[in-house]
Write a structure and sequence with these properties.
The protein is an all-beta fold and about 180 residues long. It is built from one helix and 14 strands. It is globular, with a radius of gyration of 16 Å.
Amino acid sequence: MGNESRDIGVFQDPSGSGILLSEDRKNGLHIYQLGHDYLSVERLLSTTLKDDGSHGYESPVLIYQDGLYYLFGSDLTGWNTNDNKYSTAESLQGPWSAWRDFAKPGSRTFDSQVSVIVPVSGSERTTHIYIGDRWNRSDLFNSRTVVLPIEIQAGKAQLSWHETWSLDLSTGVVSH
């Protein structure tokens, strides 16, 4: 559609539609609806910017929980980690809420960049697992990941550090 496309993410909407998330340094983070075959872009649904109106976020991740979309992203700071943000909306067309931290401010999202958030549905609850990239720019092959449970409910997302934790896959319950 003539827009720059850098970091991208994909998402399957509850309706079954494919969604493409695409970071455009000049214009923001675009949310596109894909065609029925998921191989073409059908239309632009919305474009998000930072709250100050500047560029959007990269490394986009989208999830849907209890009637609300949660859009996650990392600021454009190159190899330097930052406090990643999230925004919410009832519709992919927006309006999107103000961007907020989901990890402790100043933690630089535990020295990681959001990569994916995986829902694990159990008999008692759905738990979300944050997977973040911890890039080692001098040795990319040996870069690590940060894997933590992330609380997502009622319009809020909260990532906390846990040295150890476990997940009961059958119930979806996390223990610390």
